[in-house]
Amino acid sequence: xxxxxxxxxxxxxxxxxxxxxxxxxxxxxxxxxxxxxxxxxxxxxxxxxxxxxxxxxxxxxxxxxxxxxxxxxxxxxxxxxxxxxxxxxxxxxxxxxxxxxxxxxxxxxxxxxxxxxxxxxxxxxxxxxxxxxxxxxxxxxxxxxxxxxxxxxxxxxxxxxxxxxxxxxxxxxxxxxxxxxxxxxxxxxxxxxxxxxxxxxxxxxxxxxxxxxxxxxxxxxxxxxxxxxxxxxxxxxxxxxxxxxxxxxxxxxxxxxx
Length: 258
Description:
mainly alpha, 2 domains, two-stranded antiparallel ribbon, globular
């Protein structure tokens, strides 16, 4: 489930800095941001600017001040987020995806969000779509060095060489999975009953730049892990009617949750 953004602007609870104030040190799990290798941690000192953002973000339109992280749905309900996030929450987040191009888009956007705010990615979404050939895996997999240079010079997207290389490499992997399983979606469907830990291992073995939080958000947002929405969120029922894969992944009546 997404948690309202903190000073570090992550949607996840694991990266949430829990109301950190200026000068406080917080611990961030490095592999959550897509790093390879053994789990390691880094302490970050909260800056004055980030402390101010953190302080202001948790004050809703009704003046209520939040001292603890709030869920994505609560942030939407209490008008704590921008229109971009509201639109995404109401019409995309947690809704099942079966198109390989749309799944590839979601994966690439989640990878690019690492270390940044989700609203930054949503604002750049159309530029990403243009730059990455409509998120067509076949076209992206065929990108050459000139395309890499074009992407690195495109101010409309995230100009990070590692993320660009991951997009191209992952497009090739999506094509391989489609050749073996029929589609990227069918590969995901074949593993729908996996828990989060198993999914993380699977993605780390299969794709590039897929740290634990990237994997979790990709799966929750595309309907493969629960819960995207709070039980009392009106969007929950809309998603449930579409029978997302996580609804079938049960263990003695208990839903597998992220």
